[in-house]
Write a structure and sequence with these properties.
- The structure is a homodimer.
- By secondary structure, chain A is an alpha/beta fold.
- The first copy, chain A, has two domains: 10-266, Carbon-nitrogen hydrolase (Nitrilase/N-carbamoyl-D-aminoacid amidohydrolase), CATH 3.60.110.10; 283-477, HUPs (Rossmann fold, 3-Layer(aba) Sandwich), CATH 3.40.50.
- In chain A, 36% of the residues lie in helices and 18% in strands.
- Chain A has 18 helices and 21 strands.
- Chain A has helices spanning 29-45, 70-84, 178-182, 202-217, 278-296, 310-323, 340-353, 363-377, 384-405, 415-420, 441-451, 460-464, 477-480, 484-495, 501-506, 511-523, 525-529, 554-557, and strands at residues 7-8, 15-21, 50-52, 91-99, 108-116, 119-125, 150-152, 155-161, 189-194, 221-225, 227-230, 233-236, 240-242, 248-251, 258-264, 268-269, 302-305, 328-332, 356-359, 408-411, 433-434.
- A six-stranded mixed beta sheet of chain A has the order 6-5-4-3-2-15, with helices on one face.
- The interface between A and B is large, with 101 and 101 residues.
């Protein structure tokens, strides 16, 4: 036994608990029930006493306004009955929405059920409803105010739902701590069913919270999270069983379905929690995010534009990993401003993985559009307009390909560009899913280097050359933006850390640069409003978790 | 005195209350303070005792995640100090955010202040926080739980904030009714400061709620609403003073700034509430919505595509009303499938108002793109792809015009099209603001007829011909969609009334049609996600008030 292992004593022996970490689909109640009953069957075959599922798994999380349809709630209730019927000789803990019988308050609860032998023995409701960042549970649910442990074969279970445990071990947003109430009934174990979306800080943060609960309430803890992605939100699974010291007894897979059985015995050998490196987590999250977007939408094929730059090269490789090389098509669309190395580098991207591609030059179409505009534009000089026309022609070609052959266009914008609006609306901002739009340019490089750690997959030249949109002769990103190393630091402080211009300047950044960048962030809110959904991997992604007005006085806002 | 008039007796005489119904701008704290101090000055000049402003007027409503920035809250606090300094010889009731001193719970309150002679005498916080449809106040604010009337010169004021009064007179969502608590302290008057967005049912609904409060608590009621639009949300003002029977003592303008003084005397002559016709309200709302989007963004000029159809003709006229004919530019972009009458009708639109336009045929550019795609498309037949290419070329031309000359593109899609995805993403779905996307096609006709009530402004032919996208020979909307009269009824039942397919079919609609339409609604969630912001005029608009997943099992969802 190493110094990191510990012995854990619990008073109940030989209770076999199964953890069913499944990948559900929102609204696919029949499919979800199928997954659930399969897991129950599997648990029965292994003589499990209790099998635990994740939060709202009957309908998939997050169901959003589907919850406002009576018929949807009826279907969830019927599903619960179906599940109950297969619970002979086993107990099941599972999550789904229920109606609030009180005509006052929100119409629903976010509930967990203990089902034994076909009977719903207990129903408990979520007490702490997250409503910040991507969470909006106050929109739908009434919080529970009466809390009780539930009894299963003489074992007192503190059955809680996700956020219910999140009021210790962090800054703690809530006035009540459900576990402080439940501890008065001396629970033997905490079971927490969750749908906790991934970001690169989340696994460590989550472990910290769970450990704080196990330690404080001196009970083992079973934590069951959902896995799988739903458009922007990626759920990482990584379910955990902790002993009463907060050490790890069982750790389920990240970004994959998993099924594990734990027997809480006198002597369980635990191990310390191991955090995985940020870039590795982001990598796996993005691959799952792409794969589930396609699979759950019944789609198989993707198309994207390959410019020879790092963003499209990285997106291409991630898509190939997610969908298979046979399902990703690359379009090269050089213009007169494309450098020779751009085409070479783009081709190399494809060749490295043995993919298929086509080269469609845009010169003729660009000239034709220019001629079309001549009666209006007359002899006005080439400017941003013509740069945008190129970007939009490429989008038009990509979408034509998408329409003709049924491929979904992947967007390749990164977070730095998305933040300052360095992209053309209806041009390179197009796509069904934005793969990289939650990672800064500097992280794009890190992730590319991670992918290349053993061999060149993403062309070295795409990594090492100076970034350029190549929409006018000799253009470089650094003509209009600060170096990404500086830009990303400023953006991170403003977006992730919610620091003001003044605070960022006080850290030593150049005032004019900071004000310019923050102003650009706000001025481009209108572009991001129409952007593709962004795979969320950071604690503050563009999308539903960051809600800013479009029409506002940003000149003032950006300077305060 | 007619039978609709009543005498109202209140015990306090000669208290002059001013209602400042102003148009604020989100984030424009300096500008808002300026408006506020001007109104205070105006009130002083007329020997007003108390001047009342609307909810969160210091920062403008809704500020969304600007509230998450410490620096933004500091700026609001400083603004309050500035305002306090000009309150000699007058009292002011005003709304702004304040910090919650308790480290638990949300960081802010949505507050109202009574300021007298430079001193904030009372601060009360909103108790009922709306969190449904477009409202998300639980995201930011902690609800008040301790309620007290405030005293002003011996008058007991029940000072409440918007939703605080919304728990009687309707179905009532909340477990507490703040007025039930406050009535125990025998208030003499209810003052409610609000930021209540417009929809075409809202003025009547709102009056019903206010009347129910005045009647039940037997006090006069002063209701001050914000006016003006912020991107999608349009605030109609229409502030009201009611007597203790709920009759109207004073009714402020809709969709305009206004300032009124009311003296609550022994004998006030009241009048009944008058509801305005729906289409008239929608008309005024849309004009204000366009105007404020431009004005508050520092923009003046709009461009839009004129197809000869009713949607673009109506959008054009509304834009001309909002911005002036000199600021609206029409582009006609005929293709080989455009009928002769389309160009005539589009020209007539422009000529009727004396506007400027240009004709830019897309044939050559379309042919050039077709040739560009030839190596990939080979001899595949003309299909939806080529229809979309035309729509996207038009968007490209419109955006090129927009970029070159600084005009903002207005989107002309209606709600029926937006609902079923009858539109091309990055094509006719482009635009900075969607003017008609919250009114169904049948309402587009009604509104056009209203505009034409005295003379032909919108070409009669645009109103009377069969709707067509003209993207292939002889195309009609009714080739792929049911007649709008049927379509809109089904959509209204599903979107506004949240009825399921089964419920709609049980009302007598054809099952296959209903299932097809509802399925289309869901399948096109991905398109609407990237659509322009929609001016909201209905109780359930596409946008922030309707939040549905993109990746979900819609086949199943649409049939339950």
């Amino acid at each position: 036994m190493t110094k990191n292992q510990s012995f854990e004593t619990v008073f109940f022996l030989n209770m076999k608990i199964a953890i069913a970490q499944n990948n559900y689909k929102v609204g696919d109640i029949l499919g979800n029930v199928n997954k659930i009953t399969n897991s129950i069957q599997k648990a029965k075959e292994q003589n499990v006493d209790l099998v635990v599922f994740s939060e709202l798994c009957i309908c998939g999380y997050p169901p959003y306004d589907l919850l406002n349809f009576d018929s949807f709630i009826n279907a969830c209730e019927n599903a619960l009955k179906t599940i109950s019927k297969v619970t002979e000789n086993i107990a099941v803990i599972i999550g789904g929405p229920t109606r609030n019988p009180d005509p006052k308050g929100k119409a629903l609860f976010n509930s967990a059920f203990l089902i034994i032998e076909g009977v719903i023995q207990n129903t408990v409701h979520k007490a702490l409803l997250p409503d910040y960042d991507v969470f909006d549970e106050c929109r739908y649910f009434e919080p529970e105010t009466t809390l009780n442990v539930i009894d299963f074969k003489g074992v007192k279970i503190a059955l809680t739902i996700c956020e219910d445990l999140w009021n210790i071990g962090n800054e703690g947003l809530y006035k009540v701590n459900p576990m402080e109430v439940l501890k008065q009934q001396s629970p033997d174990i905490i079971i927490n069913i969750a749908a906790s979306p991934f970001d690169y800080e989340q696994q460590e943060k989550r472990y910290g919270i769970l450990k704080a609960n196990a330690e404080k309430y001196k009970t083992p803890l079973v934590y069951v999270n959902q896995v799988g992605a739903h458009t922007d939100l990626i759920f990482d699974g990584a379910s955990l069983v902790l002993d009463s010291k907060g050490e790890v007894l069982k750790s389920l897979k990240s970004f994959e379905e998993d099924f594990a059985i734990v027997e809480l015995q006198k002597e369980n050998i635990s191990k310390p929690f191991e955090a995985r490196p940020k870039i590795e987590l982001i990598h796996d999250a993005l691959v799952l995010g792409i794969r589930d977007y396609f699979r759950k939408s019944g789609l198989t094929k993707a198309v994207l534009g390959l410019s020879g730059g790092i963003d499209s090269a990285l997106t291409y490789v991630l898509a190939v990993k997610a969908l298979g090389v046979e399902n990703v098509f690359g379009l090269l669309m050089p213009s007169e401003f494309s450098s020779a190395h751009s085409i070479e580098d783009a081709l190399k991207s494809v060749e490295k993985v043995g993919g298929t591609y086509e080269i469609i030059p845009i010169k003729d179409a660009f000239n034709s559009v220019s001629e079309t505009m001549l009666p209006v534009f007359k002899d006005l000089p080439f400017n941003l307009t013509e740069e945008n026309i190129q970007a939009r022609l490429r989008a038009l070609i990509l979408m034509a390909y998408s329409n003709k052959f049924g491929h979904v266009l992947l967007n390749t914008s990164n977070k730095s560009e998305a933040a300052v609006g360095y992209g053309t609306l209806y041009g390179d901002m197009c796509g069904g899913l934005a793969v990289l739009a939650d990672i800064y340019k500097t992280e794009v490089y890190e992730l590319s280097k991670f992918i290349n750690r053993n061999k060149e997959i993403i062309p070295y030249n795409s990594i090492h050359k100076a970034p350029s949109a190549e929409l006018r002769p000799g253009q470089k990103d650094s003509d209009s933006l600060p170096e990404y190393a500086i830009l990303d630091q400023i953006l991170y402080r403003h977006i992730e850390l919610a620091k003001s211009a003044k605070e960022i300047v006080s850290e030593g950044f150049d005032e004019i640069t900071v004000l310019k960048i923050i102003r650009l962030v706000y001025l481009n809110e209108y572009k991001r409003f129409q952007a593709a959904p962004v795979l969320r991997v950071s604690p503050k992604a563009f999308g539903s978790g960051r809600k800013l007005p479009i029409v506002a006085c940003y000149k003032q806002v950006s300077s305060i």
